Amino acid sequence: MERKLPVVLEEYLNYLNSRKTKPQTAQAYYYDISLYLKYMKSRMNRLEEKDIDSIDISDIDLKLLSKISDVDLISYNNYLDKIRQNGGAAKARKISSLKSFYHFIVYIKRYLDTNPCDQLEMPKIAKKPNKNTGDVSSDDILELIQSIHGKNHLRDKAILLLLLDSSISLQELVHLKLQDFAFEKHEINSSFNDGDAKKFPLKSETKMALQEYIDQERMSTDCNYLFLSQRKSQISVRTVQHLIQTRTEQNPKSRRNISSTVLRNMNI
């Protein structure tokens, strides 16, 4: 039987298809967002949580979505923890799906003015400590990234997440071009070293941070480098090192020596 979807979810799935998203990825997004919408309909209508899986979401519209607040997101997060008993990895996937969905309806279609996912934190997935990171913990890194604000905050957050997410060097990073970012493939490409192309797979949070920087903050210019300086030219290695130091100093809770090397070797 053909599934009946809310119009906005249908539009989102069509958008994923237009970006040539892998079918299995789009299917995972569909399941995650459907569960989220079922939960929100249940919450708004005070239905029993045990009946969530059988809820019809075909009538969900922008009016309902516009009523969802960060408080509702916290409640959903608790539901995943306590009722669904999702672990860190499962929750991370569901939240990544939500961030992608809200990026589409807020920033691509502009159906909503605010994004309730902005303050939703990714769950921490425990991994073995890395000897190259010294006494810097995953909490220190996450605290640093969440504290970034003000001028160039989208650029700086995208740079830190990219360093954190991949083994890309600073020289490779500053030589990235706009066309090197392959959104639909969840990867970024570098041909800095002797033209030998390297592919760096990206997590959803890093991919969305890069797209937000490009769509909302990157200045319109003839310069084709991905990351730009204040002068609308290629950012330098020294500038990246300086912004990491500055962002660390601006965070009142940071008491660690965080560098690009630490970020590249951090496991989060």
From TrEMBL:
Cellular compartments annotated: Cytoplasm
One of the GO biological process terms: DNA integration
Keywords: Cell cycle, Cell division, Chromosome partition, Cytoplasm, DNA integration, DNA recombination, DNA-binding
Lineage start: Bacteria, Bacillati, Bacillota, Clostridia, Eubacteriales
Main function: Site-specific tyrosine recombinase, which acts by catalyzing the cutting and rejoining of the recombining DNA molecules.
Domain Core-binding (CB): 3-106
PROSITE patterns, sorted: CB, TYR_RECOMBINASE
Domain Tyr recombinase span(s) in chain numbering: 131-268
Superkingdom as given in the UniProt entry: Bacteria
Family: Belongs to the 'phage' integrase family.
An annotated Gene Ontology molecular function: DNA binding
Cleavable signal peptide: none
Region annotation (Disordered) ranges: 247-268
Name under which the protein is recorded: Site-specific recombinase XerD
Predominant location category: cytoplasm
One of the record's GO cellular component terms: cytoplasm
